[in-house]
Amino acid sequence: MTSSSSHRDIVLTALQNEQASARSSLVPSLKGKSALPSLSSLFLTVLDKRQKYNRLTTPPTFKPPPRVTLPDMRREAWLRDLASPLVPLRRLSRTIPHGLKGPILLDQCAAKSIPTARAVWFARCVGANELRGLKRKGVGSFAVGSETKWLKEWTGQVTRFLERTISECGSSSDLWKQKMVYA
Question: Fewer beta carbons under 10 A from the terminal one: N or C of the chain?
Answer without folding.
Answer: N
